[in-house]
Amino acid sequence: MDIVYNGEWTWAASLGRLLIALAFAGGLASTIGYTRAVREGQGPWHAMGRWGFRIQAAGIFGASALVYLLIFSHRYEFEYVWKHLNDAMPFSYMLSSFWGGQEGGFLVWMCWILVLAIVFLRRNPGKLEAPVMAIHAGILTGLSSMLLGLWFGDFQFGLDPFLMLREAPQNAGLPWTLNPDYLSLIPQFADGQGLNPLLQNYWMVIHPPTLFLGFASTLMPFAMAVSGLWLVDHKTWMDRAISWAFFGVAILGAGILMGGAWAYEALSFGGFWAWDPVENSSLVPWLVLVAGAHLLLINKSKPGTAITATYLLVSLSFLLVVYSTFLTKSGILGDTSVHSFVDSGILPQLLGFLLGCCALFCTLLLAPGRDRILFGGLQAVMMVGIVVLDPALCVLGLIAVMLAAVLRAHLRHLPRTDKESPLWTREFWMFVGGMLMFASAVHITFQTSLPVLNHFLEPFSAGFERLHQATGSALARKLATHDLAPGTDFDATYHAIQVPLAFLFISITAFTQYLRYGRNPNRQVFFMPLRSLIAAAVLTVVFLLAYDFETWEAPRVALMLACLWSAASNADYIIQVLKGKWDHAGASIAHIGFAMVIFGAVLSNAKKDIVSQNRFGDLAMLNESLSNEEDLLLLEGDTVTMGAYYVMYRERRQEGIHAKFAVDYFNTLPAEYSAGDVVSNEGFVFQCAEDHTASPTFTDDLEDHWTFIPIPNDRQKRQAAPWSAGRPGEHAFTLEPRIQLNERMGNAPEPDTKRYWNRDLYTHIKWGRVSDPEADEDGWMGGRKHDLMRRDSLVIGRSILALDSISAVTMAEKPAQGLLDKDLAVAAHFRLTGNGPDTTFTALYIVRDSLLIPDMVTLEDRGIKVRIDGFRPTEATFETVIWENLSIRRDFIVMQAIVFPQINLLWLGCLIMTTGALMAVRQRRKNQRRRTPAQPSA
Amino acid sequence: MSRLNIVVILMVAVLLGALFSVFTTNSESVVFSRAFAEPGIEFKVSGTLDTDHPVLYDPLMDVAETRFHMQDKEGEVQEVILRKAKPTGLEQSESIDLYGKVVDGEFVATEMLMKCPSKYNEDSHSLAESTPEAG
């Protein structure tokens, strides 16, 4: 018996699923049609391909539009809408809730692929249309299968963007799902869960779509490369693919750096790059794409160069995007990484898609006919084995077959140049640069994929264990336990390899533009990069002097030198060689931008300065072990020195889901001391002999202005303020680092940064109260335990509570205290100073008949209650409980502040790099149109 | 182009060297008993937060001391001292990697990595308890 639910848009669920099914079916038809059309040419198959594609596009665009309709209509019966939307979200976040989850991510990706394909179709693709569109249709079909949402028993095939909450497996069979009116009755459905507050940031509106466009743009060069293999024509596609590849370089690069900017602005790990699997797996395709795009460039001027490498790099760029999807969306990194990744249940599908694409590519690399059948068959066998036999072993086997196929294709089928060019040619050095970037990509991929590698090591675990027993090798034991993970020290794990590689390939960008294709350059060409090198060396020395670099940082300094050289050299090139013809300067501008990005990244991270150092521990209980120099305790209203400023934590206020902490910054002026002032420095007490302005260090003033007081009396000890060289001047600015109140994820601190042109002051909260503490109706907060010895002192509110002395209560004193003769009592004499008159009081530790008698001392006007709960005679320590009243309580925060030098070079460089790459694309398109006016390419 | 081949081979050699170094430098985690058996030596201990004991952080006392109890992979629970301000999200963490050594009978950690519930995590509130409002 089917229940009819009231108020649901059940039609939307059906329509949505239909649209996706249409897309899938249309895609299949299109793939088949275009595949046949490769051989048959224009005809019914070609038409089938076109029509299938139209249906596929309509299905995907339609489904996307439908999801937006559901979002803007707040249809919370749909799980996707409920999870990522709520009524409170403003328009821009409603837009971005579309890509709040994996389903939306796939749709955005597919929409961009469709857009790019349509652009391709409108540009007279000629004979490339059939193979390229066949690939597109096939890939899109595979991707749309990720959204089919079908269930075969327990096996999930695809996610379902149109799943209703009542249909979700975790809700199946619950009582409310059988109630036809659940939508209006249950309060949870009146509003959605909303986008994770961590994602509610303007970057969420622009970063994911840009990134997905970048990912989508790797498909076109891949499709063209596969077309080249398919048609066994290695030249045509390379010409056409260059613009697409560099477009991808521009957009994907911008998208990745946007992610970095987001992390820097909104997250509090104090940086913009964390070598996190999500970051790495989008950086790697970009590196490979850059390398591949440059190899395409070589082939434009010198056809037939490094054909295998060109095919591999261009295709790997797309395959690595699919791998990235697999890594981050399948949950395979789950247990073995300190970052959690979602397991949405489609791991087998993603793996199948990934391996299928790779297998297809490797098969087509080979010569048509026997080779393809043989290797294709072997791969198919391996893939079956993954399903029915051991997955890890068979994936390994599959990879082995694919490698063998690549090798065979390189040796037997793909053309190789026999002639060797001279050493100082453009093509040779571009090739070397490409290989270096590829090496960089492989290293990053390897580190990121260690958890995946663990799966492969599992079957051999026993074997490694035996090896370890036999040889005692630590390496063998590590492999046996198969829980490898990237090291946590970035310098050792990543920078050690990446910095030298980057040094090499950035240096190559410095001089290669001066080289020619095919022949050695003239003598005078050596001078131009040389003078840039000298200029760069001079600048490097300037930076070396400005910042402290240690010997072990030599590789970084070399990298910075290379970046400066590249920027200078490319600028020189624009001025001298291009003579200011900006149209052709795209590449040089892009290189300058990239050099700036790397330079900014290296300098701002290597020389970041943590200016918040805790000085407050003097007054609190000192802990003898290592003190932490990173975080600053700020009591409300206290002005404390920090770096070049004086800071004061003024107040906390609530704004929406944020608790904002206002911290005022004051300029520092030199301190003024008058005769008679008493200060303490390094534990000694001094008195000022005459009025003076403080010098930067105490010892500069010591002889002339200060009198040493070796044994200060009590008054002097109390008056002695810590000496400081500066005092707060006028108010400079206010920063409001905040804590985002996030019930789902736990509260998340967000930084507030003061930006100057040449540095950033980045501050964030390490600890702060987001709400008033709990107190009873009189305002007394919960008691805190303290162990106090004689002379110990604590900060309570704005006062200092010190335990002056301990005495035994004599017989004579007992009656006055209300004690019986048989009681044993020890008195603790306290002194309360600051924020009121000096007050002394006594609390007692009383034992009567072996029982502790509680003695609570209350100082109402000072807002303090003290009770002694215990006494340890051997250590002369009282175990006390102290209550503070809200009236005297001082709020405080723990804050960390970092100065990042020259970090704006990074963002500026990103803009310049993207602009340069897009300029180059535009120039190339202009050239293409001029050469082949209004006729389809051959 | 044999020169290109040389370049490729060199690159592969460099890479293999780099990858091999990955295997030999990555730290493996140990259990508390090992760390306590060799005081003064720095180890990585992996485990989970023991919620039976509270997380103690009193910035007024010491800005850089957080105390909590952790259970290692063998189930042993020990109190640890982290020489940092209380990391955000410690109570929600799913697993912890601590880097430190045993000093004076206590495990003092200088660095900590946590695995938090993912920001990409899509766990929604359970609707199992949903009931229609009366009336």
The overall pLDDT of chain A, averaged over residues, is: 87
Radius of gyration of chain B, taken over Cα atoms and rounded to an integer in Å: 22 Å
The helical percent of chain A reads 40-55%
Name the CATH class of the domain at 27-115 in chain B: Mainly Beta
Strand content of chain A: 15-25%
Cα end-to-end separation of chain A: 63 Å
Question: Which short descriptors sum up this protein?
Answer:
heterodimer, A: 938 residues, alpha+beta, six-stranded antiparallel sheet, 26 helices, 28 strands, B: 135 residues, OB fold (Dihydrolipoamide Acetyltransferase, E2P), five-stranded mixed barrel
Overview of this protein structure:
The complex is a heterodimer of chains A (938) and B (135). Helices cover 49% and strands 17% of the residues of chain A. In chain A, strands 5, 6, 7, 14, 15 and 16 form a six-stranded antiparallel beta sheet that branches. In chain A, strands 3, 4, 17, 18 and 28 form a five-stranded antiparallel beta sheet that branches. In chain A, strand 15 and strand 16 form a beta hairpin. With 135 residues, chain B is α+β, with helices and mostly antiparallel strands. Chain B is built from two helices and seven strands. A five-stranded mixed barrel of chain B has the order 2-4-5-7-6. The longest helix of chain B has 24 residues. The radius of gyration of chain B is 22 Å and the shape is elongated. In chain B, 27% of the residues are buried. The chains are: A alpha+beta (938), B alpha+beta (135). At the A-B interface, helix 3, helix 16, helix 19, helix 20 and strand 28 of A face helix 1, strand 6 and strand 7 of B.
